[in-house]
Amino acid sequence: MKQQPSEWEPEPVGAEYGGKWIAWDDAAQKIVASGATLEEVRDQALRAGVRLPGLEFVPPSDRAFVGGV
Amino acid sequence: MNFAYRRYLVELFDGASLSEVYRPVVPLLVHGPRSSLLLRPLLDSGADFTLLPLAVAQTIGVEVDTDRAGTVGGIESGSLVTYPGEVGLELSDGTQSYRWRTTVRFAAGNNLLLGHLGSLEFFTVTLDHYARTISLEPNVIFPGQA
């Protein structure tokens, strides 16, 4: 028996974040910071009160993504 | 452990409209001698090993081994010089948690890939795109602690 898709979903990552680092809040529900480097995004998130920001680099959003390098 | 796929808005093929795509991105705690970072790498079943930015090594205090540099490549001609470094990795879905020590590769740039050697090789991984769930269960060679 296949599982049904989950109804729980955080906000989608918008195209405007393509090619940037983003930081998620502690519940991994909302993007609280974005920028060019991991360090600046982490600092923004910590200053915003996030205890342990989830850091992610979003691949460019003007094309499909099929791998790293 | 179970995780949900994450949703992204991307221009796919026509260059004009945005489409939703779902990607298997998981929360990964990376522990170093100085500090820890919570990263959200792509779980990449085609990656030979875990690849992280050098900025991560610098932030958490991991000394990379520059004597063991190695070049890696993707499907096309691009390549990256990578360096090994020892870290602690931890996966947790809030209910279960698994932590182990391993060697990952670091490189300049922004690649965040959770690959096989030292990481996925220790788990049975199920990617269920329809249910939008990712399941990782430790296997018999998992070297760490639950």
Number of helices of chain B: 1
Instruction: Pick out the low-confidence regions of chain B.
Output: none
Greatest contact between two chains: A-B, 36 and 46 residues
Specify the biggest β-sheet of chain B.
6 strands, mixed
Percentage beta strand of chain B: over 45%
List low-confidence stretches of chain A. Answer: 1-5
Gross geometry of chain A: globular
Find the structural class of chain B using helix and strand composition.
mainly beta
Q: Tell me the quaternary state.
A: heterodimer
Largest sheet of chain A: 3 strands, antiparallel
Total strand segments of chain A: 3
For the record, give the distance between the C-alpha atoms at the N and C termini of chain A, rounded to a whole number: 37 Å
Count of the separate structural domains of chain B: 1
Radius of gyration of chain A: 14 Å
The geometry of chain B reads as: globular
Order of helices and strands of chain A: EEHE
Percent of residues in β-strands of chain A? 15-25%
Provide the structure class of chain A.
Answer: alpha+beta
What CATH calls the topology of chain B is Cathepsin D, subunit A, domain 1
Instruction: Supply Rg of chain B.
Output: 16 Å
Structure description:
The complex is a heterodimer of chains A (69) and B (146). Helices cover 14% and strands 19% of the residues of chain A. With 69 residues, chain A is of the alpha+beta class. Chain A has a domain at 18-57. A three-stranded antiparallel β-sheet of chain A has the order 2-1-3. Chain A is globular, with a radius of gyration of 14 Å. By secondary structure, chain B is mainly beta. Chain B has a single domain, classed as Acid Proteases (Cathepsin D, subunit A, domain 1). Chain B is built from one helix and 13 strands, in the order E-E-E-E-E-E-E-H-E-E-E-E-E-E. Chain B has one helix spanning 54-60, and strands spanning 2-4, 6-11, 18-23, 28-31, 36-39, 42-43, 51-53, 70-73, 79-92, 97-107, 113-114, 123-128, 133-138. In chain B, the strands form four sheets. In chain B, strands 4, 5, 7, 8, 9 and 10 form a six-stranded mixed β-sheet that branches. In chain B, strands 1-13-12 form a three-stranded antiparallel β-sheet, with no helix packed on it. In chain B, a hairpin with a 4-residue loop joins strand 9 and strand 10 (97-107). The longest helix of chain B is centred in the middle third of the chain and has 7 residues, at 54-60. Chain B is globular. The model of chain B has no long low-confidence stretch (mean pLDDT 94). Classes of the chains: A alpha+beta (69), B mainly beta (146). The interface between A and B is large, with 36 and 46 residues. Strand 3 of chain A pairs parallel with strand 5 (36-39) of chain B.
